[in-house]
Write a structure and sequence with these properties.
The complex is a heterodimer of chains A (263) and B (159). By secondary structure, chain A is mainly alpha-helical. Chain A has a single domain, classed as Cytochrome Bc1 Complex, Chain C. Chain A is 62% helix and 0% strand. Chain A is built from 11 helices and no strands. By secondary structure, chain B is an alpha+beta fold. Helix content of chain B is 19%, strand content 28%. Chain B has 2 domains: 36 residues; 117 residues, Rieske [2Fe-2S] iron-sulphur domain (Rieske Iron-sulfur Protein, 3-layer Sandwich). In chain B, the strands form 2 sheets. In chain B, strands 1, 2, 3, 4, 9, 10 and 11 form a 7-stranded antiparallel β-sheet that branches. Chain B has a 4-stranded antiparallel β-sheet with strand order 5-6-7-8, with no helix packed on it. Classes of the chains: A mainly alpha (263), B alpha+beta (159). At the A-B interface, helix 9 of A face loops of B. The structure holds protoporphyrin IX containing FE and FE2/S2 (inorganic) cluster.
Chain lengths: 263, 159
């Protein structure tokens, strides 16, 4: 019995398809382990080796990693929600209700998306807090801190644009209140410093472009939808790629004492 | 300039002009030219149809405007909370406007008396149209804190 299983496994591991996906064996040699990481498109952003302290949860709190996991969850559940949700004023609210009441596992998907979004805002802040506490923003990691600030902003923008999509009273008024702040943008806002002097009016300033009108309306819903589902996640994904790559290029996760760093 | 050099410069010039045009075009595209919003000025019926002392809410849903009839005239209030832009509610028994968002309160004349808002509601230009109807222009605002409520079109004298 066991013989047959092993024979089959052997046969499978020798096929062209298997060898194209798993390019190296499980041989436990330094060289083979390095090659397994290097030759995989998904893993090659990782360092081939990391220092022992980098795996210590007490040091990183794993907050960057958890943030990334939440981002993946949000991407998957978000795409699933897109199968039912239509970003038009006539449909949006009803589609959300439909998802919650009549779609099998709709509430699960929507709630996963919502809770993961809330959690991501919290974890990204805790991650930033950790980086600050461990002094990991110092050279040579200052560039990654800057990338991180953009990632934090993107996370908040993702939350804000997603907030409008249920198209209920809470959504519309929360976004009304939030986007009213854009009026006060310097130079580009109709009520901001130097805005009126530069010819900014309620119907041509930065808030107008964001809303696609002078008030939160159907064009705003569509704009926020595109920002939320395409534009912002795409930029965030690119910046995360740089973020992870940069960690490795800056010598891996910073440690308690760099001079005694052992691999 | 050699021919090769010229083609090189011309090629890059064409490339960057194309790119610049596309970028400018994409930015301009984001600014809509047509709005499907209610017009800024509207006629609000005949003065005789208004009841003295009452806050008229007929034009609130579409235009976000209250029209108030006093003994000696009319004023129009923008139904936009001056805190952060929600729509307050007129509570006819309490005789005040209350905002559901953060609790700002305004007297009937639009002056604020509680909540986080820093200033009174805005008044809008109100005049009589040629056909005798009230005419409200939401584009022209009068701000209390700039002493603009005493300007001519902020209040329509009507006996
Ligand atoms: C979408 C948001 C973000 C994701 C997915 C993310 C992910 C990660 C991951 C997985 C790490 C590895 C270490 C760890 O897990 O703690 C890391 C490290 C780092 N992150 Fe982030 N991060 C994000 C936002 C930020 C923010 C907001 C900042 C600060 C402004 C920041 C600055 C850094 C720095 C400087 C490092 C290197 C730390 C070290 O080497 O010890 N990141 N990030
Ligand atoms: S928007 Fe009315 S009280 Fe804040």
């Amino acid at each position: 019995m066991l013989g047959i299983v092993e024979q089959l496994r052997d046969k499978m591991q020798r096929t062209e398809v298997y060898k194209s996906i798993f390019r190296h064996s499980y041989q436990d040699t330094q060289r083979n382990r390095a090659l397994q990481i290097l030759d995989n498109v998904f893993l090659h952003l990782h360092p081939v080796r990391i220092s022992r302290h980098a795996t210590n949860i007490g040091f990183t709190w794993g907050m960057g990693g958890i943030t990334f996991l939440l981002f993946i969850i949000l991407t998957v559940t978000g795409v699933i929600l897109m199968f039912y949700y239509r970003p038009a004023a006539e449909y949006a609210y009803d589609d959300m209700k439909y998802l919650m009441n009549d779609v099998a596992f709709g509430p699960l998907m929507r709630n996963m998306h919502r809770w993961a979004a809330h959690a991501m805002v919290i974890t990204v802040m805790l991650h930033m807090f950790r980086v600050f506490l461990t002094g990991s923003y110092k050279a040579p990691r200052q560039f990654n801190w800057v990338i991180g600030v953009f990632l934090l902003t993107l996370t908040l923008f993702l939350s804000f644009t997603g907030y409008l999509l249920p198209w209920d009273q809470l959504a519309i008024w929360a976004v009304t209140v939030g986007t009213n702040m854009a009026r006060a943008t310097p130079f580009l806002g109709s009520e901001g410093p130097f805005g009126p002097e530069l010819g900014m009016r309620i119907d041509n300033d930065v808030r107008f472009v964001l809303l696609g009108g002078t008030q939160v309306g159907p064009p705003t819903l569509l704009r926020f939808y595109v920002l939320h589902c395409i534009f912002l996640p795409l930029i965030a994904a690119v910046l995360m790629t740089v973020h992870f790559w940069r960690i490795r290029k800056d010598g891996g996760i910073s440690g308690p004492d760099v001079s005694t760093k052992k691999f | 300039m050699s021919r090769k050099n010229f083609l090189n410069v011309a090629g890059w010039f064409a490339f960057f002009s194309f790119l610049a045009t596309a970028v400018v075009g994409a930015i301009r595209l984001m600014v809509p030219r047509v709005l499907y919003e209610a017009p800024s000025a509207f006629k609000a019926g005949y003065p005789e149809d208004y009841i003295v002392g009452k806050v008229n809410e007929n034009y609130k849903d579409e235009y976000r405007v209250w029209i108030v009839r006093e003994i000696d005239g009319f004023y129009a209030l923008a139904a936009i909370c001056t805190h952060l832009g929600c729509t307050p509610r007129w509570l006819s028994l309490e005789k005040m406007f209350k905002c559901p968002c953060h609790g700002s309160g305004y007297h009937k004349d639009g002056v604020n008396f509680e909540g986080p808002t820093p200033r009174p509601l805005e008044r809008l230009k109100i005049t009589l149209a040629d056909d005798g109807q009230l005419l409200v222009d939401r584009n022209i605002k009068f701000l209390y804190e700039k002493q603009e409520w005493s300007k001519p079109d902020a209040y329509l004298n009507y006996g």
